[in-house]
Design goal:
There is one protein chain. Helices cover 27% and strands 25% of the residues. With 369 residues, the protein is of the alpha/beta class. The chain has two domains: 2-141 and 342-367, Quinone Oxidoreductase, Chain A, domain 1, CATH 3.90.180.10; 155-311, 3-Layer(aba) Sandwich (Rossmann fold). Strand 1 and strand 2 (12-17) form a beta hairpin. Bound molecules: beta-D-glucopyranose and zinc ion. Zinc ion (ZN) binds at residues 39, 41, 64-65, 154.
Length: 369
């Protein structure tokens, strides 16, 4: 079968003939892959900055944002049945019994670093025609979400982040879990970046009741600004508005959801994070050398403002289930905005061009079958 593969040693990316997998365990499930989303991680992998083939293989099959259809199930499978649409999780547990996270199915917090990630680290991905995996990593998606379900995996990033926000903010005496406070009491969010992770994060925050501002490079009116406004958030451009002006517009910035991978802008934004605020990093920057920062100001604000900064990566089953639920809610509230996030669909023969070129748009998708 066809698969999109990266050969790190040869510095090559191409379609390969990859052996079709078969079910070998009672809980195995075989999928026909329908769609694969392309993200910044994939671009880093094809830029040979990141990504590791499985042991013994000279290539890595790419693709971790997937949508598949169940075509065959092992004898003991109960979670899915043929015909179901499923999104498969990315990370697999490390082999160590002493890991604090993997043995309890929380490999998203793996404490040894020896986890694998399908399509990223030590395990083949999903940008191919058929995939076999264990049912425990699969999450059923309602048929009505077929056209947007490939956005589930990138949305899990926001879901896991928001769950942690409420855990952190339990420290505030007036916060009810899962619900922004009344005006002035933790309800104002700023999202840095208007790529897929930023926009899905902004939708999730908006949907959760936050007054949400997306702060991104270029000034509108343009499609992205209109898209942001269509789901009830505000679009503010870095080009025309300084961080001080942003903070003035927003008021106490309670939450920053970083989705740019740009350290300079992110740390500068930390200077305007509000009292009792939470700053979340989701981007993984390339190493570009030291930057200049007003670190004293940031440290003062962190201490005197009771601020919390955390990074978040990968997602567990709960985050996938929340993402599927929320995607349904978003489609009920803002169907055009959700559809508008997918700006290109390409056949697998075009996959290398999409990955290596500058296809533009928001989320580009490889449509496989
Ligand atoms: C994926 C995560 C993964 C991370 C780091 C992201 O693009 O969405 O599942 O953990 O890359 O490899
Ligand atoms: Zn991704």
């Amino acid at each position: 079968m066809k698969a999109l593969a990266v050969f790190p040693a040869q510095r090559a990316v191409r379609l390969v003939a990859h052996p079709e997998p078969a079910i070998t365990t009672p809980t195995g499930v075989k999928l026909r892959i329908l769609e694969i989303g392309i993200c910044g991680t994939d671009r880093e992998i094809v830029g040979f900055q990141y990504g590791t083939p499985p042991p013994g293989s000279e290539y890595l099959v790419l693709g971790h944002e997937s949508l598949g259809e169940v075509i065959e199930v092992g004898t003991a499978v109960t979670r899915v049945k043929p015909g179901d649409l499923v999104v498969t999780m990315v990370r697999r547990p490390c082999p160590h019994a002493e890991c604090l996270a993997c043995p309890v199915d929380r490999q998203d917090f793996c404490s040894t670093g020896d986890f694998t990630e399908r399509g990223i680290k030590g395990a083949h991905g999903f940008c191919t025609q058929f995939v076999v995996d264990d049912e425990k990593y699969m999450n059923v998606v309602p048929r009505q979400l077929r056209e947007v379900a490939v956005l589930t995996e990138p949305l899990t990033i926001a879901e896991k982040a928001i769950t942690q926000v409420w855990q952190v903010q339990q420290r505030l005496p007036w916060i009810a879990p899962g619900k922004p406070g009344p005006k002035g009491r933790f309800h104002r969010a700023v999202v840095l970046g208007a790529g897929p992770v930023g926009l899905l994060g902004a939708m999730a925050l908006s949907n959760a009741g936050f007054e949400t501002t997306v702060y991104s490079r270029t000034s509108g009116p343009h499609d992205k600004a209109r898209l942001v406004e269509s789901f009830g958030a505000r679009y503010v451009a870095v080009e025309t508005t300084t961080l001080e002006q942003l903070a003035e517009k927003v008021g106490n910035i309670d939450l920053v959801y970083e989705a740019t991978g740009a350290a300079q802008l992110s740390f500068e934004t930390m200077e305007v994070l509000g009292t009792n605020g939470v700053f979340i990093f989701t981007g993984v920057p390339g190493r570009r050398g030291p930057i200049e920062l007003d670190a004293d100001l940031i440290m003062r604000n962190l201490v005197l403002g009771n601020q919390v900064v955390f990074g978040t990566v990968n997602a567990n089953r709960d985050a996938f289930e929340a993402a599927i639920r929320d995607l349904g809610t978003f489609m009920g509230r803002w169907p055009e905005a959700v559809r508008g996030l997918i700006t290109g669909r390409y056949p697998i023969q075009k996959a290398t061009d999409v990955l290596l070129g500058e296809p533009g748009g928001i989320k580009n998708v490889i449509a496989i079958s």
